[in-house]
């Protein structure tokens, strides 16, 4: 068993980095040894560690940890894109969140990262036609993390959700790659429509804390939505919108707003 595990670690620089950091944590803080071993060092790959975390966090009296672990292991084995997305998300958090100092921090401590990985398994279940189980995952993610993402929503890679309190993403919402959003963001509808009714967020968009984007509208790539804004109309690419209702107040200010995380308005 040692040789395959070593080969997997050697071929996966993200997982190798996480394991090196885990060993350092155990050396520096022995009281964390049990958590770090069970959450990281016991596992041969990032996918297995993610499956363990999914099961531990979402298990309840209604669904055992063992069953959830089997579901997650099956999802990661069937769809390599789940693991690829998790790595992109992890790197995104590490690069954009100044409070993240190690790769293992999102995996062990950050509920935004953990919630989005659980959503990805729920989405996989939904796509497999296992709708009720997907809804169960959505319910538990909402209860445990305060993040309510419909399993039918489509979310890209390289996602960073900072603080991740009171995040809501509706059924027909689409979120592109390399998007960053802060707490209390809503991607919602405007009424009781049953068709395509939620926002379409382009690549590289930055959504500030408390922003509400409502209706089947497009937010162009590399745009910024200021904190507290209510967006009801289409947002052109590479622009900044602010206010209630939101209006265009300037350009985005940089090529990659979601990476730079600059939330100051042009007149600031």
Overview in brief:
This protein has 268 residues and is of the alpha/beta class.
Report on the structure:
- By secondary structure, the chain is α/β, with parallel strands linked by helices.
- The chain has helices spanning 2-11, 13-28, 33-41, 46-58, 65-78, 80-96, 104-108, 111-127, 131-145, 257-260; strands at residues 147-149, 154-155, 160-161, 167-169, 174-175, 180-181, 186-188, 200-201, 206-207, 212-214, 218-219, 224-225, 230-231, 239-242, 247-251.
- Strand 14 (239-242) and strand 15 form a beta hairpin.
- The longest helix is centred in the N-terminal third of the chain and has 17 residues, at 80-96.
**Structural class assignment:** alpha/beta
- The arrangement of helices and strands along the chain is HHHHHHHHHEEEEEEEEEEEEEEEH
State the share of residues found in helices, binned by percent: 40-55%
Structural Rg: 19 Å
Strand order of the largest sheet: 3-6-9-12-14-15
* Most strands sheet: 6 strands, mixed
Estimate the mean pLDDT confidence.
94
Gross geometry: globular
Estimate the strand proportion. 5-15%
Low-confidence stretches: none
Distance from N terminus to C terminus (CA atoms, Å) equals 57 Å
Tally the helices: what do you get? 10
Tell me the number of strands.
15
Key terms:
single chain, 268 residues, alpha/beta, six-stranded mixed β-sheet, five-stranded parallel β-sheet, 10 helices, 45% helix, 15% strand
Secondary structure: elements and pairs:
Elements: H1 2-11, H2 13-28, H3 33-41, H4 46-58, H5 65-78, H6 80-96, H7 104-108, H8 111-127, H9 131-145, E1 147-149, E2 154-155, E3 160-161, E4 167-169, E5 174-175, E6 180-181, E7 186-188, E8 200-201, E9 206-207, E10 212-214, E11 218-219, E12 224-225, E13 230-231, E14 239-242, E15 247-251, H10 257-260
Parallel strand pairs: 1-4, 2-5, 3-6, 4-7, 5-8, 6-9, 7-10, 8-11, 9-12, 10-13, 12-14
Antiparallel strand pairs: 14-15
Helix pairs in contact: 2-3, 4-5, 5-6, 6-8, 8-9
């Amino acid at each position: 068993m040692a040789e395959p595990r070593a080969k997997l670690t050697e071929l996966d620089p993200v997982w190798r980095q996480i394991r090196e950091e885990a060993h350092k944590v155990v050396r520096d803080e022995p009281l964390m040894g049990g958590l770090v071993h069970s959450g990281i060092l016991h596992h041969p790959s990032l996918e297995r560690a993610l499956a363990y975390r999914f099961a531990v966090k979402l298990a309840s009296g209604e669904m055992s940890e063992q069953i959830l672990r089997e579901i997650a292991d099956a999802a990661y084995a069937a769809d390599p894109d789940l693991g690829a997305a998790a790595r992109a998300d992890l790197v995104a958090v590490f690069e954009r969140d100044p409070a993240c100092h190690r790769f293992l921090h999102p995996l062990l401590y950050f509920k935004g990262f953990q919630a989005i990985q659980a959503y990805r398994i729920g989405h996989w279940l939904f796509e497999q036609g296992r709708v009720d189980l997907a809804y169960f995952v959505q319910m538990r993610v909402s209860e445990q993390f305060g993040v309510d993402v419909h399993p039918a929503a489509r979310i890209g890679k390289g996602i960073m959700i900072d603080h991740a309190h009171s995040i809501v993403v509706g059924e027909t919402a689409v979120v592109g790659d390399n998007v960053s959003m802060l707490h209390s963001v809503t991607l919602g509808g405007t009424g009781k429509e049953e068709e395509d009714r939620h926002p379409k967020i382009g690549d590289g968009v930055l959504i500030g804390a408390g922003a509400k984007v409502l209706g089947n509208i497009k937010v162009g790539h590399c745009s910024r939505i200021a904190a507290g804004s209510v967006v009801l109309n289409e947002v052109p690419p590479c622009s900044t919108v602010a206010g209630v209702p939101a209006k265009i107040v300037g350009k985005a200010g940089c090529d990659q707003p979601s990476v730079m995380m600059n939330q100051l308005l042009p007149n600031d």
